[in-house]
Structure formats: C-alpha cells, structure tokens
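Look at one such:
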Amino acid sequence: MANNVNVTKKAQFDNKGFLVTVTRKPGVYQMFDGDGKVLYIGKAKNLHNRLSSYFRASGTNTKTLALVQRIASIEVTITRNEIEALVLEQGLIKSQHPPYNVMLKDDKGYPYIFLSSKATFPRLTLHRGSKRQKGQYFGPFPNASSVRESLNFLHKTFRIRSCEDSVFRNRSRPCLQYQIQRCTAPCVNLINKEDYQTDVRHAQMFLNGTSDEVLSELADQMEQASRQLAFEKAARLRDQIKDLRRLQAEQIAESGGGDVDVLGVASANGIGCVHILFIRQGRILGSRSYFPAERLGLSSAGLLSAFIPQFYLSNQRQPPRQILVAHEMEDVMVIQQALSANANKEIVISHKLRGTRARWIEMAQQAAKHNLHSRAATQQKLQSRFENLQKLLHLAELPERIECFDISHSSGEATVASCVVFDVEGAVKSDYRRFNIEGIQAGDDFAAMAQALKRRYSRLCSGEGQFPNLLLIDGGKGQVHQAVDCLNELGVIGVQIIGVAKGSSRKAGFETLHLVAKQRELVLESDSPGLHLIQQVRDEAHRFAITGHRQRRDKKRRESPLETIAGVGPARRRALLRHFGGLQEIRRASVNDLATVEGVSHKLAEAVYSELHNG
C-alpha cells in the first residue's frame, strides 16, 4: 500500500475538483462527514470510476443520495490489487464501524468444541467466548445443540473426559461418566497415557473430517488385539467402528457428503436477512439467520458481496471449501481469491446448482424470506411499544435507548448485578454488562445497586459507551434513590429514571412505576403495550442477572478448598483425598491425622487444618 490522498473538509464538498485528483488504480476509499466521522468505507478495482458513480446526475437511489449529501471529505488508500483492497476494507470496517456499511455483530458467543492441550489427559468439551486457553478449537458451530450432539457421539465413541481440570485433579474414584461408558476414567489411572492419546488423536481426525482414516486405523488395531487375545479391547474397537459406520451411513443417506455453507438472502423495506445452512461431512448441523445493518438499499447480490467478506475475513471464521449462494455476485472472483489466501486453501463460491445443492439453496432462501418477514413484524410491534411508552410517560422524544439494572444472589452469596440494553430494534446484547459485587454486607441490595450503577456510569462518563434515554431500576424506592444519588454524583443529566416495583401479588401486570422526574407513582393497565415493553426489558435484566449469579455461585462451589492452600499441589490433594475418602473426612481429621498422609508434614497439616476450619 502506497499513496494516501486526503481532501480537506469543506463546507460543501467539491466532487469535481476531487475526482480530477483520484487515481484509476485499485484501493480503498473512506467518506467522512463535517465532524470528521467516517460514513462509509468501500473498495474498488478502479477508484476513479467507482467514486465517480456516487456523483452522477441520475440513476442514483435515494439512500445513496442521502449518503452523498453528508460527505465533507474523502480519503483514498491505493493498494497493489483488488484482493488487497478487500482485505484492507474489511479491517477498516471492523475497527471503525461506519454507519452506512453492512455491519455484523461480533460472534464471540458462537460455540466451539474445545480440546485442551495442557494436561496429559486432555478434555473435550463445549466452549464459548474468547480463545484464551491453549488447545484446539473446532467450529464455530451454529448453535449449542449441534455441539452437544457432536460431543455426545464423541464421548460415546472415543470416551474422552469432559470434566473440569479441578474436578479431574481431585477425583479418588471413577464418576458416573465412567459407569455409563462415556469416559475411560484417566483420573484414577484406569487407562494408560498411550491408549488415551490414541483416542484423542482419533477424535481429532474425526473432527478434521478424516473419518475414513480413523476407520482404517481402528480396523488394524482390532485385528491386532484379536491376535493378541485381547478380546475386551477388540470388542471396544469393534463398537467404535460400528458407531462410525452408522454415522457415515446417515450422512450419505442425507446428502451424499461434503462440507458446505449455503447462503440464502432476502431484503425488503430497508431490512436484509442472510440465512446460512452449516453442512459438515454431509450433515446439516444447523442454521442461523443474520440481519446485517445496511443503509444503502443494496440488491440481494450486493448484500451477499458485502456480507461474505465480513463474515469470513473480519471475524476470522474458517470457511469450508465450498460456499453456495443464491445469486451471482459481480466481484465473486476477488472474494474467492481473498478467502482462499486467508484460509490457505482453495475456496469456491458457486450459484449454479443442481440436485441436493439446489434444494439446500431453496431451503436457505425460504428461511431467509420467512425470517425477514418475522423480523419486520417484530420490529413493527416493538416500535409501537416504544411509541406507546413515550405517550404514557409524556416524553418529549421517543426513548430510543433503554437500560435496566437488576440484582441476583442466594442469601447474599455470589451477588451479581446485570445491565441490559434495548433500542427500537430490540435487545442490544453487545452492550450488556454484568458486575460481580464485592465488599458489601451480604444481602444488601441497595449497596449492590449503588456499586453497579457507579461502575457502569463512571465508564460511560469516561466515553466508553452511549448514555440511555431511560433508566429502569428493578426495585422500589430504595433502589431508585441509589440510582438518583449515583447519577447526581457523577453529574449525569438527561437520563429519565423509573423504578419498576412488583405489586403486592408479585404478578406481571400489577407493577408500580416510580417516576423520579414527576415525583409520582403510576400503575398502567395490564394490556398496555408500554407496560409490556417495560416487562420485557425487566425480565431480560432478571434473566441475565440470575444466569450470571448461578455461574458465579456454581464455579465457587466447584472449587475445592484444598486448591487455595499454599503447598498443597495436585499430588498432595490426591493423596489426602485417597487417604480420607473425601473432603468431609478431611475436615473431621485432626492435625496429627493429617500428618500421617504421605508427603504432608506436620507444619503443612497445621496449615490445612487452619484453612479448612478458619478460612
């Protein structure tokens, strides 16, 4: 990438003077408004021709004209070829989030199959979130059910452990997974390292799509075990082969095999939907609809051209070798080459299809149209709820952004506060936040609410996010006063605060609203659309809070108290558990009893006793 051409912002953009200076080489262009904020980022094989098309006297749709009227300056970056321009474009879109580009939400929530690499006996399990742990990640999968289906087969066939490392290190006898033949109990050495690693390697090969090689190896091992008269081992290998053969037969009967992503697309009234069928080893693992935000009224083919690079390049998603699309795209060759270079394998995008693949496209198209219609109906309903709430609360403007806070705990244990965000399009899950509450008296909901609000709005004041128009507090006057004090302390103005208190019956439809600005209470009719919106947001805040609380509580309860004691490593923990049979017996043991365990000195026994009785 070489030259940068920058046009200084002017009161009215001089497109004729600008176009004279623009090269005909490939590159990326960025359009800015009068405040210097990026409006749109695009790429072109010929920058001059592409930018000239925005300023034609006729033939430009109204949405593009609205963009052009806001342009105050344009910057271009010249690249060596169109493929390089495409990659640069996707990087800039992901970092700058221009409002007129097709935008996808981040997919950190997608599930993967994770195979750990730290331990001698790796674990195989479902994983969501950032990939911080060392190991192999297979996926992403379209949903958790498809991951669980695959894991169920893998655990049944290869019997690789799924338990947490903390549980594995502290086992003294096999668990239920061993009893139902879903694990070989490496925690208590009922399988040696070499045999376990063989099972892990076969699971890796299966997940990488080489099940034929797995079958060949298993057949050889079965014959060898039979010759050595190891009939129990041979029977287990026979069962693995049978399970793999059955799965292969199901795949062939369903589709004839292949790893494919199938993309259907539909658009209407400024809303677009791309529906993807995820097909691996000939099986439809699942599907998912995406509703990319776009403001230029793109055609179906144009929407695909914008969607595919961002979906695979910006999110670093590994594409299959074949992608099937419903429409022919003008820049399909450039996209193919960019995807192939990024994935280090040849990627083919096809649209002329027959037989099974044509039926897949038809399925994806029908799903895209149906889901688009449902989305439009839902948005219309949500819009009417916002408008009704505005009317009921006598607000000067539509409350375009609502935040709601809730607190969850079990008798003061593992207190978690949630913050959920809604706008006129629905839940904005990327802006959701949870707060682990620390340093307060157990069960003090007022202090918990105050801490969560202060942490949230201190960050917003520092420019981390966007302030809401309406702040809902799930609770009565006490929680509402915490919100008022917090916002006053931080100097936040323009945010309407409403407390949502349950009625005496604690049933939906009988809520009392505490209106801080008007210093009065309001009880809405149970069939009010505005009340339904408040209930929807409040219920989502409650769900998000209680989910976070349960995760935090269960994680704490899964941790062994022995793990926090200095000097007690995995070997000594296992020795203690083997000697006494469990944590309860260790708690009952005296210092002298603890000191009789191999590897535990009298000083360490005192530390263990003190930690378990005074910690």
